[in-house]
Write a structure and sequence with these properties.
By secondary structure, the chain is mainly α. Helix content is 67%, strand content 0%. It is globular, with a radius of gyration of 18 Å.
Length: 230
Amino acid sequence: MGGIDFAGGTPVHIASGSAALAYSLMLGKRRGHGTHELNFRPHNVTQIIIGTVFLWVGWFGFNAGSALSANMRAVMAAVNTNIAASVGGVTWCLLDYRLERKWSAVGFCSGVVAGLVAITPGSGFVPPWAAVIFGAVAGSSCNYATKVKFYLGIDDALDIFAVHGIGGFVGNMLTGFFAATLTFSAVTTWPILMALPRSLGEESAATGCSWRISLQTRCRASPTRSEAHA
């Protein structure tokens, strides 16, 4: 479709986030959702941190490896990945501190993933200073997007839609604004904004396809959680 997506922000993150939202709506809530029977607080922070470290390191291969060569674009993709993840983690942590008045390692890990998701489509196209904006916008957007499940009344236990769906959407939009013709250019080339409508088209197509496939799969699946416990 002609959009700008370096490492798969649309087919990986927007598609998975949209599918998670569709499945959350169709499967219904778990038994005990919203009560003390089902506690949403993380039970093992150590494992969360270890998992985030694995993700962070693996994402270098995911983004930089999309250059398909050991060149300077791959190096820039790795640099942008690290910057966006770091800023995303700090941003999420600060937003949580504003509400709870304590620093949260889990919040930092969530922000790191949000930054990694957002920088994926633009990692090989944007200059390093733009990666700071990617991390800050993704960390704040995904943090507030975690409240969507309460408004919709869904049971998205891992906030997949908030982090991957919204994070991927934010990353694709920012790529259209900050992508540069030359990887090391300090100035954004405005003609690349021509790809912004194409990115919107890709995101809409990915969302629609994910919903359709998810709903078709659900029609052939077992009863929902609500039906099973009825």
